[in-house]
Specification:
By secondary structure, the protein is α/β, with parallel strands linked by helices. It has a domain of 113 residues: Rossmann fold (3-Layer(aba) Sandwich). The chain is built from 6 helices and 5 strands; from the N terminus they run E-H-E-H-E-H-E-H-E-H-H. The chain has a 5-stranded parallel sheet with strand order 2-1-3-4-5, with helices on both faces. Helix 4 links the parallel strand 4 and strand 5. Helix 3 packs parallel to helix 4. The longest helix has 19 residues. It is globular and about 45 Å long. The model has no long low-confidence stretch (mean pLDDT 91).
Length: 162
């Protein structure tokens, strides 16, 4: 079990359940934690930090009660603990301005529209986590079975070591 978490922030429980189900193939290596609001996500982030974990991927809805997903991701980008986290905005309602803000201010890595294709969400998660482990991990071998093995092998060759 890795200390690299995936967090999913979505205010609709049925949608949150579907996201978690779609990400199930990754859960063996990357524990999936959920929050139903930006405030709950902040608490979750504090908890993961306190336990010595890291957040490799954040998938966040845009329109939620209280702070929006973009607000949360902008905050995450400004926090040294979560600035390297790969950030995916998942929404059916973000206007162009909110999307531009997310890309520019939160260093958003991806935008996925609702409804999404389960395979697309899983592939995006794998691609983003592959990038995260390449940037953050010394030993890439533990991730070969679950992430993009070709990209990881390429990186191992480029580094000249495992």
């Amino acid at each position: 079990m890795s200390d690299i978490y995936i967090i999913c922030v979505e205010d609709e429980m049925q949608v949150l359940d579907v996201i978690v189900k779609d990400l199930e193939p990754l859960e063996e290596v990357f524990p999936v934690e959920v929050a139903v609001s930006a405030d709950e996500a902040r608490e979750l982030i504090r908890e993961i930090k306190k336990e010595g974990g890291r957040i490799g991927l954040a998938i966040c809805d845009h329109v939620m009660p209280g702070d929006s997903g973009v607000d949360l991701m902008v905050e995450m980008q400004k926090d040294p603990f979560t600035e390297k986290t790969r950030k995916v905005l998942l929404t059916g309602q973000a206007g162009l301005e909110a999307t531009i803000e997310a890309v520019n201010m939160a260093r958003l890595n991806r935008y996925i529209g609702k409804p999404w294709d389960p395979e697309q969400l899983l592939n995006v998660a794998k691609e983003e986590l592959t990038q995260y482990v390449i940037e953050q991990e010394k030993n890439l071998l533990p991730y070969m079975q679950i992430l993009d093995a070709a990209r990881l092998q390429e990186e191992i060759r480029a580094r000249g070591s495992v």
